[in-house]
Amino acid sequence: AEYVGPVLVDAPAAVAIFAALLPNAVVGRKPVLTDNPISLDSERDMPSLNARLLPSSFEVVDDPGATFGNDDEGVPAARVPVIEKGIWRRPLSSRVPVKGAPKSNGHGRAQPGGAVSPSPTNLIVQASLTLSSGEMTEKLRALCNERGLEYGLLIRRFQAAGSVEDLPSEDLSD
Fold this sequence. Notes:
The chain is of the alpha+beta class. Helix content is 21%, strand content 16%. The chain has three helices and eight strands, in the order E-H-H-E-E-E-E-E-E-H-E. The longest helix has 15 residues, at 11-25.
């Protein structure tokens, strides 16, 4: 069954969702030049620069701080305001030019023996509009009532594909 309606994501689940999805969404990538429909399909799900990724109250910065002097290509690691007012403005980049980043901003990283690709170092997510858990629950109820829905979704836990975690029985109730 398909659900179309308001969704409230509890703080621990929100952290897990951001950790699983955000890092790959904000790096600059060259489009794959192929006529293989499977490759093209995987690119379809990548966000476009200047597209809304988050609500307008969100800002995301990647700040390597003192942890990284230079990236793996010798470029000084720079603080990059990636998402401004919910819009993806600047991709994290290596020396390979991409739309929105004609030169490296010091985020080229490589696994030992691997090719360099853009990668986040220290993503910082901030929201200017914050509500308590109780206020968010009331807002969810109000949205459901406003839309004539019998229920809304509350996501308390999120587990990324490929990760393993046992869920306590109390998380399987309600």
